[in-house]
Amino acid sequence: MEGERARRSWVRTLTAVYGPTVLASIGFGAVIPLIAIQARALGTSVGVAAFITALTGIAQAIGDLPAGFVTDRIGEKYSIVLACLVDAVMMAVVFASHSLVLLALAVLCHGLTGSVFSLARQTYLTERIPLSWRARAMSTLGGVMRVGWFIGPLAAAAIINRWSLPAAFGFAAGMSLVAAVVTFTMPDLPGEEHGLAAIRQRSRGDHARTLSVLRANRRVLLTLGTGCLGLMLIRAVRQTIIPLWCEAHGIPAATTSLIYSMSMGCDVLLFFPGGLIMDRLGRRWVTLPAIATMSAGLLVLPLTHHAATIALVAALLGVGNGVSSGIVITLGADVSPTWGRSQFLAGWRLFADSGNAVGPLVVSAVAGAAGLPASALTVGVIGLVGTWWLSRYVPRRTDG
């Protein structure tokens, strides 16, 4: 009887943690490879299209520290509901407006809501999952997002063929709305305070000051955090450069979605094995091979000119990205303090999300000055430097 109760508790917990994540990820996964293409369809240049794609990462970096405040005050559940509702409204605006300015605004807002959503999930898993299972729990969190990013482009390809490119943004709005409703109707997670009364109690509680927490942990942020910034930079570039590379070679939007979905398929296949390796052998055995593999993929991208060869490079990038699913949030959880954990993880995510922001900006700047092939080579070299940096600071062992 006790075992059955424990099993039901874990099923409810995992459903509440991972269910809304996969729903929201399906929606935005449908439009990730289409943002640059939609911007180009609205008449802008390759450089500006890359910049608009980069707005997601910029906004995540801007929103990370405020996200720590929001999550600490109103709790995980209501933070996620709020984030999903705002995201649904903005994707609906893109669907209805066909405006470049509103597209940029929606992408910016998605970055802000994404910082709240991601921090709430990471904080919960850090506090309540045993260390021996931490990497698998975190990699599964990243993995279910990748499931959404795999399904989303497939759905987008069908929607584009049946209706139009903007219709994919309407689909994303619907998925975010469903995620908000599912989150709101689910019971509170074990260990969470209940209802709106808990929000009032949190607002009166004793909270760590964000700047004090970050100052106390500045060494690990400036060393390991900087390395994770480099890893996230490499990851973020794929979302920009693969769609733009396809567009530059005359590949249709629906085919681009399929290529991107195939890359995400590699992510889906490898996220749990990656977490298992991290828990059994250590974080280094995933971090270093992953960033080296993605760097190699970017260095050979300029040699590809057809859908088949581009798909092979996209798959290689997917392998590196998939096996390292959850590594950044796992490392953050490993080094996070007990007191001020939400604030520390917000600062940690600031470093990681700065990489998300900088990656597409590098593509935009270098592509504008020297073309897309030069941007791929530049980021590939940055990845090799990041591999060396992480080899110095990723711990060889994880002690409980």
Automatic annotation (TrEMBL):
Q: Which CDD domains does the UniProt record give?
A: MFS_MdtG_SLC18_like
GO molecular function terms here?
A: transmembrane transporter activity
The subcellular localization recorded is: Cell membrane
Where does this chain mainly localize? membrane
- TM regions (residue ranges): 21-39, 45-66, 78-96, 102-120, 141-160, 166-186, 220-238, 258-278, 285-304, 310-336, 357-390
| Topological category with respect to the lipid bilayer | Multi-pass membrane protein
Q: Which organism is it from?
A: Propionibacterium acidifaciens F0233
Its keywords, alphabetically, are:
Cell membrane, Membrane, Transmembrane, Transmembrane helix, Transport
- SUPFAM superfamilies xref list: MFS general substrate transporter (SSF103473)
Extract the InterPro entries matched here.
MFS (IPR011701), MFS_dom (IPR020846), MFS_trans_sf (IPR036259), MFS_Transporters (IPR050171), Sugar_transporter_CS (IPR005829)
Which superkingdom?
Answer: Bacteria
Q: Name one Pfam family in it.
A: MFS_1
Major facilitator superfamily (MFS) profile domain sequence ranges: 13-398
Name of the protein in its database record:
Transporter, major facilitator family protein
State a GO cellular component annotated for this protein: plasma membrane
